[in-house]
Specification:
With 271 residues, this protein is an alpha+beta fold. The chain is built from eight helices and nine strands. Helix 4 (153-163) runs antiparallel to helix 8.
C-alpha cells in the first residue's frame, strides 16, 4: 500500500462464481480524486470485489472524527454503486445485487475495531473482460453526488433491497411498482398512474442508453390506440396474462435496465 491511511471495502453482489455471468477489468482500476477533503485515490479490484479508498497523508484522524470519515466513505461507495447500476448497459447480462461492507481500516494505527464501523448499504455462463477499467471507474466516480445521495438515501436503500430478491419475476414487479410510486412523486399526482410511467420511461430511457420500444397497450381498459413501453408491456403481460401458458421472457438485462431507470427517477425527485 502506498498510503499509510486507507480503508478497504468489500463489494458483494457483483463478483460472481463460475456459474453466473460476470464482468471484470483486465487489471485493478484506479482513479485520482481531486478536490476531496478526505480521498486522494480510489482503487477497485479487477474482479469488482474490493474497493480501496486512499486518504490524504496530511489528514488528521482521531477517535473523535474517524466514525464521520468512515461514514462519508460508505456514502461515497454507495453512490458509486448507484452509478454502477445506472450505467449497467455495458454489462447488462450480469445480475447486479450490490451490497458493501467494510473489510479493513488503516487510519489510526492498528487499534480500530472493524465491528464498530461496519455499515451495510445495505446454462451458458459468460465473463466479460473490460480493458478500460480506469474509464469505467472514472464514470462511476463522476456520477457521485454525496449531498443528493444523503438526502435520498432511503429511496436508494429501497432499490438496493429490492435487488436482493431471489425470484426474478417478483423482483421485477416490485421494482416496477416502486418506479410507479416515484413517478407519482415526480409529477405531483394524486394517485399512481401507469400512463405517467410510460411517459417517464419514454422521455428518460435514452439517458441510460436504453432504446425505447413502444407497442399497443395490453392493459385491460386501455384505448385502442394507446401505447406502452417495453417495461410496462412486460409488467402487464405478467399481471394480466392473456394466455396463462405463455412464457415470460425475463433476464438480468431487463432487471438492470429497469434499475437504471429507477436511478434516474430518484435523481429527478426534488430535494
Amino acid at each position: 500500500m502506498e498510503n499509510s491511511k486507507y480503508v478497504v471495502f468489500e463489494i458483494l453482489g457483483v463478483k460472481k462464481d463460475d456459474r453466473q455471468n460476470s464482468f471484470v477489468f483486465d487489471k485493478d482500476a484506479e482513479c485520482i480524486i481531486n478536490n476531496d477533503e478526505y480521498i486522494s485515490k480510489i482503487q477497485v479490484s479487477s474482479d469488482i470485489g474490493k474497493a480501496i479508498f486512499y486518504l490524504h497523508d496530511s489528514l488528521e484522524i482521531s477517535e473523535n472524527n474517524v466514525s464521520g470519515i468512515v461514514n462519508y466513505l460508505s456514502l461515497y461507495l454507495g453512490n458509486m454503486m448507484i452509478a454502477l447500476l445506472k450505467n449497467s448497459l455495458k454489462y447488462s447480462s450480469v445480475l447486479l445485487k450490490p451490497t458493501i461492507r467494510i473489510s479493513e481500516l488503516h487510519l489510526i494505527g492498528n487499534e480500530v475495531r472493524l465491528n464498530d464501523y461496519i455499515r451495510f448499504t445495505d446454462s451458458l455462463v459468460c465473463c466479460f473482460k473490460f480493458d478500460n477499467g480506469n474509464e469505467i471507474l472514472k464514470q462511476w466516480i463522476e456520477d457521485v453526488k454525496i449531498s443528493d445521495y444523503v438526502i435520498k438515501n432511503d429511496k436508494y436503500d429501497i432499490l438496493f433491497l429490492l435487488l436482493q430478491g431471489g425470484n426474478i419475476v417478483q423482483k421485477y414487479m416490485a421494482m416496477y411498482a416502486y418506479l410507479m410510486c416515484l413517478v407519482k412523486e415526480i409529477y405531483s399526482s394524486q394517485r399512481e398512474n401507469q400512463k405517467q410511467v410510460v411517459k417517464y420511461i419514454s422521455d428518460n430511457c435514452s439517458r441510460v442508453g436504453i432504446n425505447l420500444i413502444l407497442s399497443l397497450c395490453t392493459r385491460p381498459g386501455a384505448k385502442t390506440n394507446e401505447k406502452e413501453d417495453q417495461f410496462t408491456a412486460l409488467r402487464n403481460k405478467i399481471a394480466h396474462p392473456a394466455n396463462i401458458n405463455a412464457n415470460v421472457n425475463m433476464s438480468e438485462n431487463t432487471i438492470n435496465q429497469l434499475a437504471s431507470i429507477i436511478c434516474c427517477a430518484i435523481e429527478d425527485i426534488s430535494s
